[in-house]
Amino acid sequence: MAETAIRPAGNRHHVVIIGAGFGGIFAARELGDADVDVTIINRTNHHLFAPLLYQVATGILSTGEIAASVRQILSGKDNINVVRGDVTDIDVEAQTVTSVEGEFSRTYSYDSLIVAAGAGQSYFGNDHFAEFAPGLKTLDNALELRARIVTAFERAELAETAEERERLLTFVIVGAGPTGVELAGQIAEMARRSFTDEYSNFVPSQAKIVLIDGMPQVLPPFGKRLGKKAQRELEKNGVTVVLNAMVVNVDEGTVTYKDTKTEQEVTIESATKIWSAGVQASPLGKLIADQVGVEAERNGKVPVNADLTVGDKSNVFIIGDMMSRDRLPGVAQVAIQTGEYVAHIIKEQVEHDVAPENRDDFSYFDKGSMAIVSRFNAVVKMGKVEVTGFIGWLMWLGVHVSFLVGARNKFVTMLSWGINALTPKRYNLATTLAQMHARNALLKLGERTTDDAATLPEVRDTNGEN
């Protein structure tokens, strides 16, 4: 493999980056002016701003606002080569990476490897739930959920019985982290505000939104006070919050959970189920861990050293959602800071001959966590500082727009947010049958999909929570 491996012409240090999420993109940008050659490999052609996927799913934003072309982002960086492909093999002894795109297979040699392949949805061993309860990790997921949500309202207009209409208008979200909370709040707003007077045969506010979690509070990382505030706001807006509830079955028409206190099982009839309860790191992490003698965790994360290397390999770095270090969360800021840190120490090594044993340890600066609960209302935790309500909402807007790529995306997104804040209208609610059915159709055909996290290497850095 090593004899046929591809590397750029010349003798410069070659860095291969797997994944073009926050970690991969920020690492590549940092290396754009360094005396190195960079090859960045990504499954899709775009960098995804995953924290805003739920706004695509609920019709506030279009896909173009949160997904930018990797080639355009890195244009003008003459030392960076962008490759689209699935990484199928990594050999840390031969220092090679193999990727496949259609009928094309290529193997690249590296001097330094940055693995920022991110994470997919985890169903905790119940992967069959995915057929009926998609997650929210990709653009395909967001468009499918939009189609499912909008279609439920359209079919409720045609329902002939109250029972059928109730089933269609019951939305169940599993997982009360930031994604679940934000989705629940937005679906409630669609029903109570955006769809008012748009249907003739039923009142949209009759929709029932149920948020289920096995923990005793919503937003566990935010602490009890903010969790309680978020729960009260959700309930004020019509969301039913069910805690201490372990989901034991999901099928086409129902969700069944067990109350962990009483051991009783409850079944909810629902046409639309959404899963946001867990993540599973890319299997590329375990592939590397097995080769260097490190044991990956159950969720696929790999323990890394203080300089984010793995085992005794001083030139193999795992960052973002894939790494396990100091209990750092899977958020965008971790990916960004680890990407920039690794790029910096590679530059120090190449340009100033800094040996691996003299590297500074990675230190994370916690910029806080935040989630929108409803219009004009967000919760923010920054160290010991906790902010809620309108001020929290403004902080959320400022932080998220600052990380969007490109002036056009920033402007259009702020415009869309302004329209949504001042009027009930949502201008991105178009759906297609392909969006709604393609994922499961491809699975039945045996094709690869971006949601098959259990068996396929994830070549993206999602970092969907923020």
TrEMBL record:
Top EC class for this record: oxidoreductase
Pfam families per UniProt: Pyr_redox_2
Gene Ontology MF, one: NADH dehydrogenase (quinone) (non-electrogenic) activity
Catalytic reactions of this protein: a quinone + NADH + H(+) = a quinol + NAD(+)
Plastid among keywords: no
UniProt keyword list: FAD, Flavoprotein, Membrane, NAD, Oxidoreductase, Transmembrane, Transmembrane helix
Transmembrane is among the record's keywords: yes
InterPro entries from the UniProt entry: FAD/NAD-bd_sf (IPR036188), FAD/NAD-binding_dom (IPR023753), NDH-2 (IPR045024)
Domain of life where this protein originates: Bacteria
PANTHER family tied to this protein: EXTERNAL NADH-UBIQUINONE OXIDOREDUCTASE 1, MITOCHONDRIAL-RELATED, NADH DEHYDROGENASE
Family (UniProt): Belongs to the NADH dehydrogenase family.
Protein name, per record: NADH:ubiquinone reductase (non-electrogenic)
